[in-house]
Amino acid sequence: MPSPTTTTTATSSSTTTTTTASALPSWVLEEREAAGIRHRRRVLEQRAQRIHGLPRATSIAVDVEGLSQQVKDRQRALEKDQREEEDFMRLAATQDRAAVLLQHREKKVLYFP
Question: What ranges does the record give for the region Disordered, renumbered to this chain (predicted)?
Fold first, then answer.
């Protein structure tokens, strides 16, 4: 630990005395440390208040035209799928009737030559 140092400088009209921190009494050091701690706490509280204290207004941009276009596209795709399924069901029903008629004809040919 460095020894306490006192420097005296003579100038034309005054004398300056510089004292290092280690030469100060312990109660002065404790007061300085306490003041530093209070200052840091105050600064941290102010920072926390700036960050967390005020509610921030956030805005979200919405592309209404783009969203409505997506909805229309989705609706068109669903309608197209529904039409395709209906067409498939009609075709399946037609093919079922044709198969039934074919089976009836085959039975008539086999049993009634």
Answer: 1-24
Helices (H) and strands (E) in the chain, counts: 2, 2
- Name the one residue in this structure whose structure tokens are 């420097």: 7
pLDDT, tens digit only, all 113 positions of the chain: 444 444 444 444 545 555 555 677 888 888 889 999 999 999 999 998 888 877 777 788 889 999 999 999 999 999 999 999 999 999 999 999 999 999 888 888 766 65
**Three-class SS of residue 24?**
coil
Strand 15-19 and strand 6-10: pairing?
antiparallel
| Sequence-distant (≥ 6) Cβ neighbours of residue 9 within 8 angstroms | 15, 16, 18
Neighbours of 46 (CB within 10 A): 11
The two three-digit tokens of residue 53, written as one number: 């204290």
Is-contact 18 7, C-beta < 8 A? yes
